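Q: Sequence in, structure out?
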Amino acid sequence: MLNPSSVGSKTEPRAFSYDWKDLALYALGIGATPEELGYLYEARGPKVFPTFAVVPAMDHMMDGLKLAGVAMEQVIHTAQRVTSLREAPPSATVVTSAEVKAIHDLKRFAQVWMHTATRLESGEPLWETDWWIIVRGEGGFGGSAPPREPVVSLPERKPRWVREQATSPSQALLYRLSGDINPIHVDPEIARSVGFERGPILHGLATFGFAARAVVMEACGGDATRLETLHGHFKKPVWPGDTLVTEIWDASPERLLLQVRVRERDEVVLGQAWATLRG
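A: Exactly. Output:
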């Protein structure tokens, strides 16, 4: 049962250690190629994509959902934000905790907002993540509606940058090795049981990572330390093997607007998306 009184509850801080292998595995999971060798090869760092923040945060987000009384079979991940607070080292022990920030009433459904904070073992803040989760069958409990989010209106002009990349038929099998082991991404029977007749879908966070890579490679000259915040809404499912097209507009020197489409179906799969950059 949904537990609205869990708002403000936090998970116990726990340590998580990563090294170059974890970073390279994550980078491959979000489609990194040999042209991004700095994110794959230990002799060059490796560098860290800021969306790696979801890896140490994942278990805490799941624990936070348990505090909120949410069962995984009820969950639809609808939006994500990652904020990078400083350059991440190529290996580190980090400490993360999660907080149930809000639970809103959508009448038919509930919406849970989870927030995580990750710091270096020495205490410096490193990453923050925000997760918006729809909970099926738990609306109508008398709670408040979520605040209205500003609409991201894309310019009518052509995007300044476009990056197109095919995902692998094994993309979900690879991405799940970074910790998101929901079986709808690997088990055909389970995927079909929840309505995905074509089979297992790609993780929304993998699509989110592809978008981050596109921003880094196109708008940041390959320098991931310039990507400060990425935010987006998951609109449609992606299947491994789909071709993702990320279109990016420069709204200002520090702010970008973007969307991700699947080329084969010309569907927007990540929308209401924006990013902020460091100078």
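The chain has two domains: 4-136, 161-277.
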